[in-house]
Amino acid sequence: MRRTVECNVALFSMDENNPRIKALQRKGGITAIYENGYVTICRGEWKMRVMKAEDIPLTYGGKATF
């Protein structure tokens, strides 16, 4: 599907070493990962920690797995 849509694509993963995440990061794409207890937004080599996963209500105190 990603190859046929005409828009920016962002990938999300609990595994920061996911091969698809790494491939998109190498191309300068946008990803969101779970990294050291934080939700982190990445674009290429740039990273910004958003907040601790346990502080995001949707994660039920960091207990929910996606």
Keywords, separated by commas or semicolons:
66 residues; four-stranded mixed sheet; 4 strands
Report on this structure.
There is one protein chain. With 66 residues, the chain is mainly beta. The protein has one domain (10-59). It contains one helix and four strands; from the N terminus they run E-H-E-E-E. The protein has a four-stranded mixed sheet, covered by helices on one side. The relative contact order is 0.17. The mean pLDDT is 89.
SSE inventory with pairings:
Elements: E1 10-13, H1 19-26, E2 30-35, E3 38-43, E4 46-52
Parallel strand pairs: 1-2
Antiparallel strand pairs: 2-3, 3-4
For the CA atoms, what is the radius of gyration? 13 Å
Number of domains: 1
| Shape descriptor | globular
The fraction of residues in strands falls at: 25-35%
Order of helices and strands: EHEEE
Residue windows where pLDDT falls under 50 for at least 5 positions:
none
**How is the quaternary structure best described?**
single chain
**Beginning-to-end CA distance, first to last residue:** 21 Å
| Strand order across the largest sheet | 1-2-3-4
Helix count from the secondary structure assignment: 1
Mean pLDDT over the full residue set: 89
Report the count of strand segments: 4
Major sheet size, sense and barrel closure = 4 strands, mixed
Structural class computed from helices and strand pairing = mainly beta
Fraction of helical residues: 10-25%
